[in-house]
Write a structure and sequence with these properties.
Distance between the termini of chain A: 67 Å
Strand content of chain A: under 5%
Number of helices of chain B: 7
Largest sheet of chain A: none
Oligomer: heterodimer
Radius of gyration of chain B: 19 Å
Strand content of chain B: under 5%
Number of strands of chain A: 0
Structural class of chain B: mainly alpha
Chain lengths: 140, 149
């Protein structure tokens, strides 16, 4: 019985810590969602991703695939981009998404956040770049 | 009139954000508490050592104790909160947790996120396999780098 009580107490504490991270995040997501249209429009053609792809890309990196699903699916479908670009975006997002939430919840239990973010961005850029080059050659 | 509108906009966003946050927390609690209790129980009865010994040969490539495998499996199949509930009572070192976090950061909640990738029209099986493969490779890589420096 004692074990269950300590487990309950500890898990409640963990939940409290996570709540402190999640509430500010979900609130700022709402504000971000409305700001989305004013995002800077930069061309970023190195990876075969154009302005159309920037909205789902940034949404995914910041918000994540679970909560950002609506925006990501809608913006990829409505902008009728080609399959190749959609694949590159999803590849980048697979490796590097929900960068704030994922990192912070592991920092709570003692991970090194800077290493995590750095490696995920690094891998995402590398893989997207190579996939872009490879698919590009295959097509031409 | 304009000020009123801005105030409404602000309050609406705040309310929606709070509501979303609380519903996420509710989901989280439903996962965290059972996982935490189960782990504490199997720790108490020594079952965790059996599981740990079973996974030790696989986990040594990641430089992780065998028990961490439970956390990784929970993260892959359920979600990150389940993984955290499992990992938190294990009291791992910073290095171990960072490695697990990298593995799980790249691929987690596959049951939820694979359908999302599918709906964008991208080959989701390929991404699914790629994510698992890549996460394992990243774990091995980070372990190598960390032990080198």
């Amino acid at each position: 019985m004692d074990i269950i009580l300590t487990a309950l107490k500890n898990s409640a504490m963990l939940t409290g810590q996570l709540l402190l991270i999640i509430l500010p995040l979900t609130i700022s997501y709402e504000f971000l969602k409305h700001k989305q249209k004013t995002l800077e429009e930069k061309t970023w053609r190195v990876f075969g991703i154009t302005q159309n792809g920037l909205v789902p890309l940034i949404t995914g990196v910041i918000i994540g695939l679970t909560y950002g699903a609506g925006v990501i699916i809608h913006s990829i479908r409505s902008s009728n981009m080609d399959k190749r670009e959609a694949f590159l975006i999803m590849l980048f997002l697979s490796i590097c998404h929900a960068i704030i939430e994922d990192t912070l919840i592991f920092v709570v239990i003692g991970a090194n956040g800077i290493i995590l973010v750095a490696i995920r961005f690094f891998l995402a850029f590398i893989f997207t770049y190579f996939a872009y080059r490879w698919l590009f050659f295959k097509k031409s | 009139m304009l000020k009123e509108k801005q105030k409404n906009y602000f309050l609406n966003n705040l309310k929606k954000g709070l509501f979303n946050g609380l519903s996420v927390t509710l989901l989280m609690v439903k996962v965290i508490i059972p996982c935490y209790i189960i782990i504490e129980l199997i720790k108490h009865f020594g079952i965790i050592r059996v599981i740990g010994n079973f996974f030790r040969p696989f986990m040594k490539y990641f430089g992780l104790p065998g028990e961490a495998a439970i956390g990784i499996i929970a993260g892959y199949t359920i979600n990150l909160y389940a993984a955290i509930a499992v990992l938190s009572p294990l009291k791992l070192s910073t290095k171990d947790i960072t490695i697990v976090a990298l593995i799980l950061g790249i691929s987690h909640s596959l049951s939820v996120e694979t359908p999302v990738t599918q709906k964008t029209g991208v080959n989701s099986w390929m991404l699914f396999c790629l994510r698992i493969l890549l996460s394992l490779l990243a774990g091995v890589g980070l372990n190598l780098i960390w032990t080198l420096f």
